[in-house]
Amino acid sequence: MMDDIPLLIVENDPVDILLFKRALTDLNYRLPLVVKESAQEATDHLRLSTNVMPWLIFLDLNLPKDSGLIFLEQLKSATPFKWIPVIVVTSSENPDDILKAALKGCCGYLLKAYEFSDFKKSVGAALEYWSRCLTPARTTPINWSSDLNQGDK
């Protein structure tokens, strides 16, 4: 059922997790949310929940142990997961990080904004765009908000 399809956030910073949750609340995001604080936790979660894979992943690059880039590379090399769009969300503006993430299969690269309103707009734009895009793993658009057509708040 499409109402059960989760969004996965892979982020280890508690403050950034709270910012994500606040942004999603403000955006009226209403689908399940899964937060994993390491690449290993995210990998374990995906392997155990192959029947209900996330429709989108927000991934921090700076994770404990394995980096977000290693997770991204492993994810995109595994057939059941390679069609899940992954958006890197990081504070790194390093062109090498941007290139490495793109080459490993990320579909977007968002900077962690200094202003919450900018962060919320970026997250909202990503949700709006990817909820309408179809992939080999998902052939139906996702209605992620209870009031998508009610304008900006």
Give a description of the structure.
By secondary structure, the chain is α/β, with parallel strands linked by helices. Helices cover 39% and strands 14% of the residues. It has helices at residues 14-26, 39-48, 68-77, 95-103, 116-132, and strands spanning 7-10, 33-36, 56-59, 86-90, 108-111. The protein has a 5-stranded parallel sheet with strand order 2-1-3-4-5, sandwiched between helices. Strand 1, helix 1 and strand 2 (33-36) form a beta-alpha-beta unit. Helix 1 (14-26) crosses helix 5 and helix 2 packs parallel to helix 3 (68-77). The protein is globular, with a radius of gyration of 15 Å. 28% of the residues are buried. Residues 149-153 have low confidence and may be disordered.
- Report the portion of residues in β strands: 5-15%
The percentage helix is: 25-40%
Discrete helix count: 5
**Terminus-to-terminus distance:** 29 Å
Q: How many DSSP-defined strands? A: 5
In what order do the strands lie side by side in the largest sheet? 2-1-3-4-5
The biggest sheet amounts to: 5 strands, parallel
Residue stretches low in confidence (pLDDT < 50, at least 5 long) are 149-153
Q: Briefly note the structural class of the backbone.
A: alpha/beta
* Cα gyration radius (Å): 15 Å
Shape: globular
Q: What is the N-to-C order of secondary-structure elements (H for helix, E for strand)?
A: EHEHEHEHEH
The averaged pLDDT comes out at: 89
